[in-house]
């Protein structure tokens, strides 16, 4: 059996080898001229959302200067061989391991895609003679043409054509154009480090571009090139170390031909990830992005106009802005720095997608988590000096930005005024893991390991991206429904066919009422005013706008993120090197920038209010805002006795048996709306929190009333016996009146208390009221339906203590 299998395998190999040999012999090799004259490449064009404003043209204007092989320095050749094809001078056009991958990958991946393994010769063929399709057939043809090419040209000729043809990014083709574009010098003058940088680029020219968002990755790949050169003996240890440490200056990117550059580069990254650079380079796509050019221009001008002042006044050298449509997730504006082309200050660095600490701008996510668990905007926590026990570490004592302690404060006030201590307590109550889970649901992508974070998370202890944070706030704006961040509306092939189109995929990730509660608090200017003032830059008198600031404790980051139902926008300011700014809160540093952008944007749309949340039905006193004790009772304010169902609501007063404690005395943090904790002291934070509360109570000179029991007697004022007794003397039952006439009324009202007001109704519609005890008046019947034959008159009388008595009589109506 094994002998037969071996014979069959040998036969198949012979047949395969013969087939390849025939293909090699029968496939025409292009002429030298056709290899050196690359085919015309249609550029891929990026437009704004209208499809009329051209943002950028990828591969739009080729820059290429062919130079002799002798003018290309040895280090460029070696760097390229080291990283791309170390066996270049020993193979015959293809790598055996590459061929094996070429055959196995399509089989393992259902023939759809091919991966890696290409030699320099194959890459030359692919970039000059073949289409960009990634199929097994094309891979075979590529290998055949590579073998044929090796029989027609020397290795140096092939390497020369490769180095003069290969794209390096920024529309530079060939090493000479690349040297001039990136370093402003001829290829023959390149240093070893510069040569390594150039060799690092062709694998993914936009991803590794020195003008894009992956400079760290470019640096790493450059070092890989140098290490590989050392392994192959092209350089020694000293040369490698010197080149790795050399600080290379790239020329500034040309300003012409690109609009909204940070956004454009972000979109190109997405396109490359989805379609690949080769596909973009060879297929002349039309890309309609989500960018609103009017808002983008406003964002850029606003950042630019404030940049000098925030640098001078606050030592903030950079700022960024992102705007998103909450109803679609589409990015409408993105500014990643004050000036993209100012490379001396890392202008091409996109802070909109950089990881930075959000400060208190993270608080709404924690509060939303707590509201999901049953806490309410009225829930009271103590803003008192508090030490938090941290297992296995030194205790933690947070401070407020103004070093004040406010005592009992509602969650509404604590969030609106950005008070730290109650917010840290709330994170403990809500749970760190659950808060991170909420953040992830809302679109925060950077908090992946809950074990890394402690209670400082609520104050911005984790790093987030401006783009993600604005997207998360968009969920609040959209009543808990998330739309994934989107930058592409449509991608068309060169023939006009649509190969990708924006498709809405809304998903409810947060309870609707919780989202509305957050919006209600963040747009509550009255609740915010004690900290920010009634007419701060966060307030818009003609629009409902929810907003939150954030400043890190070390003043390295300042944020403002806000939204309406139709627009969410966030602004960040700080320094790219993470150095601190002047000690000012975000309200001073970035609120004016955010306000000016929002003012321009809101002027373009009519006002739209947030839908108010449904009020809470919490029963526990502490969750309803009662902080002096956990037992309440209701009295009649007149008698002082317990209220009954006969006691009018405006005469009911809720009182508490004074017994002031931390919230942990009244709630189990794992079930806040459930029963009282059997042993509150079992909570590891209980004693610390309780000490802070009792210290505050003593500092305020509060003397607790004796813990007396509630009254035992019931309301003796509002009883059936004390209700006014109403008798209708006139009109009589069944008496007839004209539709257009007046109905005289005469009453007899008796009771122990004087009458305060009389209301009269016809068919349950209030027709008038009068104060005092006058029991004779008329009711106008002229507005009644002329065809109506009967009507019911109702009289309601209220005495001075709120008791009510009423009586009805039915009359007849006629037109005669």
Question: Uncertain regions: pLDDT < 50 for 5+ in a row?
Answer: 21-25, 106-116
Strand order of the largest sheet: 2-1-6-14-15
Class by helix and strand content? alpha+beta
Give me the number of helical elements.
24
- Rounded to the nearest angstrom, the radius of gyration is 38 Å
Outline the structure in words.
This protein is of the alpha+beta class and 816 residues long. It contains 24 helices and 29 strands. It has a five-stranded mixed sheet. A five-stranded antiparallel sheet has the order 8-7-19-18-17, with helices on both faces. Strand 4 and strand 5 (172-173) form a beta hairpin. The longest helix has 25 residues, at 2-26. It is elongated, with a radius of gyration of 38 Å.
Summarize the model shown.
By secondary structure, this protein is an alpha+beta fold.
């Amino acid at each position: 059996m094994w002998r037969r299998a071996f014979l069959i395998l040998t036969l198949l190999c012979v047949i395969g080898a013969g087939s390849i040999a025939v293909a090699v012999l029968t496939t025409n090799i292009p002429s030298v001229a056709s290899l050196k004259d690359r085919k015309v490449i249609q550029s891929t064009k990026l437009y704004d959302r209208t499809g009329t404003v051209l943002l950028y043209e990828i591969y739009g204007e080729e820059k290429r200067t062919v130079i002799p092989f002798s003018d290309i320095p040895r280090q460029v050749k070696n760097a390229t061989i080291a990283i791309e094809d170390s066996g270049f001078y020993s193979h015959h056009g293809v790598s055996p391991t590459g061929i094996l991958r070429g055959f196995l990958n399509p089989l393992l991946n259902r023939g759809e895609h091919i991966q890696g393994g290409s030699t320099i010769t194959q890459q030359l063929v692919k970039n000059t003679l073949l289409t960009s399709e990634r199929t097994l057939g094309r891979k075979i043809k590529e290998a055949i043409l590579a073998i044929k090419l090796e029989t027609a040209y020397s290795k140096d000729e092939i390497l020369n054509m490769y180095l003069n043809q290969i794209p390096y990014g920024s529309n530079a083709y060939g090493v000479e154009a690349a040297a001039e574009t990136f370093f402003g010098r001829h290829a023959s003058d390149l240093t070893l480090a510069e040569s390594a940088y150039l060799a690092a680029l062709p694998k993914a020219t936009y991803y590794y571009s020195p003008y894009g968002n992956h400079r760290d990755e470019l640096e790493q790949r450059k070092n890989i090139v140098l290490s590989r050169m050392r392994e192959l003996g092209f350089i020694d240890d000293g040369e490698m170390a010197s080149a790795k440490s050399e600080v290379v200056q790239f020329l500034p990117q040309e300003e012409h031909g690109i609009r909204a550059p940070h956004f454009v580069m972000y979109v190109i990254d997405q396109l490359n990830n989805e379609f690949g650079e080769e596909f973009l380079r060879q297929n002349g796509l039309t890309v309609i992005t989500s960018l609103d050019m009017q808002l983008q221009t406003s964002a850029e001008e606003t950042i630019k106009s404030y940049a000098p002042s925030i640098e001078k006044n606050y030592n903030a050298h950079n700022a960024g802005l992102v705007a998103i449509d909450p109803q679609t997730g589409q990015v409408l504006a993105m500014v990643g720095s004050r000036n993209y082309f100012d490379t001396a200050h890392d202008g091409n660095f996109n802070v909109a997608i950089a990881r930075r600490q959000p400060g208190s701008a993270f608080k709404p996510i924690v509060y939303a988590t707590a509201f999901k668990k049953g806490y309410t905007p009225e829930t009271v926590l103590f803003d008192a000096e508090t030490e938090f026990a941290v297992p296995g570490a030194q205790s933690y004592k947070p401070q407020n930005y103004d070093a004040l302690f406010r005592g009992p404060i509602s969650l509404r006030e604590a969030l609106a005024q950005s008070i730290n201590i109650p917010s840290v307590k709330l994170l403990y109550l809500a749970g760190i893991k659950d808060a991170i889970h909420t953040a992830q649901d809302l679109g925060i992508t950077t908090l992946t390991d809950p074990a890394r974070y402690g209670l400082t998370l609520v104050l911005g202890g984790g790093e987030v991206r401006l783009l993600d944070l604005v997207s998360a706030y968009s969920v609040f704006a959209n009543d808990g429904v998330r739309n994934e961040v989107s930058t592409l509306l449509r991608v068309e092939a060169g023939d006009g066919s649509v190969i990708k189109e924006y498709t809405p995929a809304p998903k409810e990730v947060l309870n609707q009422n919780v989202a509305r509660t957050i919006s209600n608090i963040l747009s509550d200017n009255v609740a915010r005013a004690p900290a920010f003032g009634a007419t701060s830059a966060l307030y818009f008198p003609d629009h409902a706008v929810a907003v939150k600031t954030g400043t890190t404790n070390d003043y390295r980051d300042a944020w403002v993120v806000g939204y309406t139902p139709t627009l969410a926008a966030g602004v960040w300011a700080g320094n790219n090197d993470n150095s601190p700014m002047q000690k000012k809160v975000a309200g001073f540093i970035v609120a004016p920038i955010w306000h000016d952008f929002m003012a321009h944007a809101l002027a373009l749309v009519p006002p739209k209010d947030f839908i108010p949340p449904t009020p809470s039905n919490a029963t526990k006193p502490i969750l309803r805002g009662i902080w002096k004790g956990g037992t309440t009772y209701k009295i009649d304010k007149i008698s002082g006795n317990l209220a009954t169902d006969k006691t009018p609501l405006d005469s009911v007063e809720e009182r508490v048996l004074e017994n002031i404690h931390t919230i942990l005395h009244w709630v189990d943090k794992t079930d806040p709306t459930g029963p009282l904790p059997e042993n509150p002291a079992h909570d590891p934070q209980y004693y610390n929190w309780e000490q802070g509360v009792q210290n505050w109570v003593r500092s305020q000179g509060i003397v607790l009333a004796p813990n007396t029991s509630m009254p035992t007697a019931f309301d003796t004022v509002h009883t059936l016996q004390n209700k006014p007794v109403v008798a209708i003397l006139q009109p009589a039952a069944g008496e007839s009146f004209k539709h257009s006439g007046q109905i005289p009324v005469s009453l007899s009202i008796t009771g122990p208390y004087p009458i305060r007001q009389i209301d009269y109704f016809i068919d349950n519609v209030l027709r008038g009221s009068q104060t005092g005890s006058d029991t004779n008046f008329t009711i106008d019947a002229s507005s009644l339906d002329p065809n109506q034959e009967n009507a019911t008159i109702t009289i309601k009388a209220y005495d001075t203590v709120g008791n009510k008595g009423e009586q009805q009589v039915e009359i007849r109506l006629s037109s005669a």
